[in-house]
Amino acid sequence: MEEQAKELRALFGTDGESDKEHKTRIIAITSGKGGVGKTNLSVNMAIAYAQLGKKVILIDGDLGMANVNVLLSIVPQYNLMQVLNGQKKMSEIILDTEFGIKFIAGANGFSKIANLSKDELDNFASEFASLSNADIIIIDTGAGIANNVLQFVAAADEVYVVTTPEPTAITDAYGIIKIITTELADRDINLKLLVNRVHSAEEGKRISDRIINIVGQFLNYKVEYIGFVYEDSVVQASVIRQKPFMIVNPTSKPAVCLKHIVGRIEKTEVASDAGVSNFLKKFLGGKKNK
Asked: Which stretches make up the CobQ/CobB/MinD/ParA nucleotide binding domain (predicted)?
């Protein structure tokens, strides 16, 4: 990994020069368990950003069980695997969608980015750098604690942990936060909490307060609450139709919630060390400067 970091610094330099003029906000969306709506929120949040006029790229970062394409009703011919092995360029696998966002399919079955060869490293770095014209890159990570999840989390500008009011989901949300803060103790991870499938604003706040207080008490780490999304039958209906709820019913409660969340995020300044070059340095092993 350290050798890869050196390779990357040689490719991009050490000061993020290529990102000085344009800062791409890179968001990783993760969860402690499957079934909390993480992928659905990733897709619809990407669309909410696009509806604000942003250039958005959605990446399926679940490299074991990639399935974002199912929610978009897309059958991709190529995915990240072809980029990693040099068979395709990023421009050849990135897909336009009817929803105003671009999409990059995950590399199903590819489990160890840490074992990239020099050629694969060069391919990944140079091709990912081509995404720097985007305003927003959203990465839907796999659920749980696979190495690839932690790499995306370590490199992203912001990390959104999705949970629901279910006791097991709350426990798993704390678990993934504990792992992140322990395994990535040398990084300054910008963690935020999003509570999905709530029945009231009060429920969302109560769940978030519970997790944030426990994290603060036992892990001495600050997590920010960015909002909630209502439980609503329109979500399941949209999944069945393979069409995002932001499109199916843009005035539904979940859609309005996401618009509010995205609006709140947009009011926060993009970090000074944000951008694609710095993402790559952190992703492939570079340490954050103290």
From this structure: 27-244
The owner of tokens 């350290």 is: 2
pTM for this structure?
0.89
Alpha helices (H) along 85-166: 90-93, 118-129, 147-155
Residues of the chain with pLDDT under 70: 1-21, 63-64, 108-118, 146-148, 285-290
Question: What pairs with residue 228 in β-bridges?
Answer: 195
pLDDT at residue number 6? 54
Name the helix (H) or strand (E) containing 182.
helix 167-183
Give all domains of the chain, ordered by start, each with its CATH number. Answer: 2-14+24-283 (3.40.50.300)
Own/partner contacts of 73-82, CB < 8 Å, gap of 24 or more, are: 73/242, 73/243, 74/103, 74/105, 76/103, 76/105, 78/105, 79/104, 79/105, 79/106, 79/107, 79/108, 80/104, 80/105, 80/106, 80/107, 80/110, 81/107, 81/108, 81/109, 81/110
- Paired with 61 in beta bridges are 141
Asked if residues 156 and 147 have their Cβ atoms less than 8 Å apart, the reply is: no
